[in-house]
Amino acid sequence: MRGPALFCLLLLVAPLLTHALVMRLLFPNLTAVNDCAIRKGVFNTVAGNCAAGKLGEAYWKMYWANCKNCDKYFHCTGNYNAVHQCTNSAQASRAAEAISDCREEVDNRGEDSALDQQANRAGRRGENCSALYLETVECFYHPKNGRVRDQRHKATVLVTKC
């Protein structure tokens, strides 16, 4: 492979390698969770890949919402979607549980970790995450529009801190 073909290959691969490096530098815990999930064989099944995608989607929504009071809601909905939108099978449930366990192993935050796991299990069981973890715990995230309601103004606005 010489000349233009090699150059085209480099153009295709370079952004992927750069993205992987940036992710490892900016989000070391996220890559540690991914490595743990690989060791546990999560990505060996279609249901496992789907569950990983749904949990990843919930993680990014939680990251961009940037509201600490809302983390249990995102744990719950991520696990709910990972099981109930990914074949609703035992395989999807095991994959979601393995990924959740990996995240808790990496973060290791004691009592909060136990509460996270409780929210994870509620989601996998198909419980109503909104009823459990939104305003009842002063989480003012609005799932339909992805915004956080500023409690002081009783209006839905995008805020950076809760």
TrEMBL record:
Domain of life: Eukaryota
UniProt keyword annotations, A-Z: Signal
One Gene Ontology CC term in the entry: extracellular region
Pfam families assigned to the protein according to its UniProt record, in alphabetical order: SAA (PF00277)
Signal sequence, renumbered to the chain: 1-20
InterPro entries registered for this protein in UniProt: Serum_amyloid_A (IPR000096)
Gene3D superfamilies tied to this protein: Serum amyloid A protein
Protein name in the entry: Putative conserved secreted protein
UniProt organism field: Rhipicephalus microplus
